[in-house]
Design brief:
- The complex is a heterodimer of chains A (231) and B (432).
- Chain A is mostly helical and 231 residues long.
- In chain A, 66% of the residues lie in helices and 2% in strands.
- Chain B has 432 residues and is an alpha+beta fold.
- In chain B, strands 10-9-11-13-14-8-15 form a seven-stranded mixed beta sheet. In chain B, strands 5-6-7-2-12 form a five-stranded mixed beta sheet, covered by helices on one side.
- The chains are: A mainly alpha (231), B alpha+beta (432).
- At the A-B interface, strand 2 of A face strand 8, helix 14 and strand 15 of B.
């Protein structure tokens, strides 16, 4: 039997340090490896099991029934497929996005989401004679946004995670995307490039991004900031 | 000889008793009002025999074979066939509140080496009901294993008898009168610290010789509960005095002490039938010495633990439950209202709690097989720590369970006892 030299309490055989003050107890007469601990090592954590596959299948079934019902209504009332095509396209879009959202490979999920969104908007543009805004504005916007998301995903998935550096990269790509967006709008509206508002937005973002990169490279400063702003 | 009128046909469902009503509404992913009782035998537990014993005990005490279900307006208890599995013990007891993992039973039976432990959700019963269940289970286990004869007493029920009506009764409703009163209180001081993750509870158990406690309590002219409560308040006062914030320094320190109501009304129920009193000191008036704290605790307990005061409190609670306006609120809305009410009124008004199940005396035939007993309360929702104690074989086992990292209250509490020449033996779940 050992006593804590700091607290004066007697310690049970299973205790090799005082639970009250953390003082290590050294008793050469006791082999702690042969003593059963007061509590086993196992920790129980509740992990609720949700059958996501079943839930998605159920939801997709609901979408299919919903889509088919609208098509049938359209056929019975008007005699041909008109407004129900929008409903059908929307349900198909939601179904595809949800189905591929939880793939293990997030890059593929993102690419499928991008392609299905392009296709969905293309259909709306085609049905409403809007191919010009689709080809020169929406398609490039979505393409840029997709590339932006892929780069961010790649940065987040890297092993050495440095939150401030990630944030600086995100801001940097934000700034780049804003410039490209203004170029696209200018080309669509005036057929020339005249950068104006994007500069006012980009400059402060770029400045903050540079500050973040500098901070992320300085470990001492990073530690100091962490100390002061921890939650 | 039991008469037919005493025997009960096991109801398929029942209303929750008055004290149990609040608990289902306060369950969250990280919290359920749970407590644990354990006994250590002199040799390793045989799980197969324990399983047989459990099945026999559940037939005698069927009030434990109920699951909680949500009705349109209130939660209720629904009867369950069978028995829960016997589980291996864990390092973080009372942290998993998902009854579905336990065949919906609201209690778990665990074993580790030579220890049997039961974890119980408070909607099922209180400490007295739980100790009756555990000791009946242990005696049945010993009878099956060693073929010995153990006489029955108030804690050890005869498993050959049928369950009795009085064991199922909601005694709160039976004894409630017309006039009730719920006292208004001030929010109490809480020791601060770094919160552990939701699935972690830190347990420290102290084994203290009752003779030493008795002689010190006698010196201060108080009971052991009053003395332990005073030492706990003194320890918390020491922490509070170091607080930088004046507002926190001036908050009262109060301990919630559960009171068993069975002796007041001669009740034999195995469901909840206990109340509580909040006793303590008002720190804004300066430093209190141990003698002053003991006088405060003793007088406050004397004032509050009277049949009339306790009845006024329980009647007040029964009146709230019987209020038709509250009754017609659907259960899913009630959950939000009652959980807010619990946050505003429950843990806010006490700094910690100290449950004393008293000194358990067992038949001589059983004593050689039982080494020790323990009781502990699960993680509190609002309070940083809770304490519970039980006496057995001239030792008092007091367990602190806390949800903060720092064992600051426990350290002060136990070292104060050591300074008074009361030996303390410590055990914990913190591992190597």
């Amino acid at each position: 039997m050992s006593y804590c030299v700091n607290c004066g309490v007697k310690l049970s055989k299973s205790e090799h340090k005082c639970p009250l003050c953390g003082t290590i107890v050294v008793n050469p007469n006791i082999d702690i490896n042969n003593i059963e601990e007061a509590y086993p090592d196992r920790i129980e954590i509740h992990n609720p099991k949700i059958n996501w596959k079943y839930l998605f299948n159920l939801f997709n079934m609901f979408l299919i029934v919903f889509g088919l019902t609208t098509v049938l209504c359209d056929l019975f009332i008007i005699g041909k497929i008109t407004w129900s095509l929008y409903v059908l396209a929307s349900t198909a879009y939601v179904g595809i996005v949800l189905f591929f959202m939880f793939l293990k490979n997030k890059y593929i999920s993102l690419i499928i989401w991008l392609l299905s969104t392009e296709l969905f908007i293309f259909l709306i543009a085609y049905l409403n004679n809007g191919m010009s805004w689709f080809l020169y504005l929406v398609m490039p916007f979505l393409f840029i946004f997709g590339i932006f998301c892929l780069i961010i995903l790649w940065i987040i998935k890297r092993k050495n995670k440095n939150l401030i550096r990630i944030l600086s990269f995100v801001l940097f790509f934000c700034a780049l995307s804003i410039i490209v967006i203004e170029i696209l709008i200018d080309l669509y509206n005036f057929k020339t490039i005249d950068l104006y508002w994007s500069i006012f937005v980009t400059l402060p973002i770029l400045l903050i991004s540079i500050v973040f990169i500098v901070i992320s490279c300085n470990k001492k400063m990073l530690e100091e900031i962490k100390q002061r702003i921890f939650i | 000889m039991e008469s037919k009128e005493d025997i009960i046909d096991i109801p398929k469902w029942m209303r929750l008793d008055n004290a149990a009503t609040i608990y289902p509404y306060t369950i969250t992913k990280k919290y359920a009002a749970t407590f644990r009782l354990s006994i250590t035998l002199n040799e390793k537990i045989d799980v197969i025999i324990l399983k047989k014993a459990l099945k026999k005990v559940l037939k005698r005490i069927p009030s434990f074979s109920y699951r909680i279900r949500k009705g349109l307006f209130w939660y209720y208890l629904s009867y369950l066939e069978g028995a829960p599995d016997i589980l291996e013990d864990i390092r973080n007891p009372m942290c998993n509140s998902h009854f579905k993992d336990n065949k919906h039973f609201m209690f778990k039976v665990r074993y580790h080496g030579s220890r049997i432990a039961i974890e119980i959700f408070h909607s099922l019963t209180d400490g007295m009901g739980a100790i009756t269940f555990l000791l009946t289970l242990t005696s049945e286990y010993l009878k099956l294993k060693y073929k010995i004869n153990i006489p029955n007493n108030s804690f050890i029920l005869n498993t050959k008898e049928k369950p009795k009506k009085e064991e199922f009764e909601d005694s709160f409703k039976k004894v409630a009168r017309n006039r009730g009163k719920l006292e208004k209180e001030k929010p109490a001081y809480h020791v601060s610290g770094i919160q552990e993750e939701g699935h972690i509870v830190n347990i420290i158990t102290g084994k203290i010789p009752i003779d030493n406690l008795k002689s010190v309590s006698k010196k201060y002219n108080c009971t052991i509960t009053e003395f332990l409560a005073a030492i706990m308040i003194l320890s918390i006062q020491e922490i509070q005095e170091k607080e930088k914030s004046k507002r926190r320094r001036n908050k009262p320190i109060k301990l919630s002490i559960p009171v068993n109501l069975r002796p007041f009304y001669n009740s034999k129920t195995l469901r909840n039938f206990s109340s509580y009193v909040n006793v303590g000191i008002d720190s804004q008036y300066g430093h209190y010495s141990l003698e002053e704290i003991i006088i405060q605790v003793k007088n406050q307990m004397g004032m509050m633990i009277t049949e009339k005061k306790l009845n006024a409190k329980l009647t007040g609670n029964v009146k709230i439950e019987n209020n038709k306006l509250i009754g017609i609120i659907p259960a899913f809305i009630k959950k939000y209202i009652l959980s807010i009410g619990e946050k505003m009124m429950g843990d806010r008004y006490c700094s910690s709690n100290l449950s004393n199940l008293g000194n358990i005396s067992l038949p001589n035939e059983m004593v050689p097989y039982l080494l020790d007993m323990n009781v502990m309360v699960g993680r509190s929702k609002g309070k940083p720590n809770s304490a519970a104690c039980i006496g057995y074989n001239n030792n008092l086992y007091i367990s602190f369970s806390r949800k903060i990292k720092e064992p600051i209250t426990e350290k002060l509490f136990f070292t104060k006892l050591v300074e008074m020449n009361i030996p303390v033996e410590i055990e914990s779940n913190q591992g190597r």
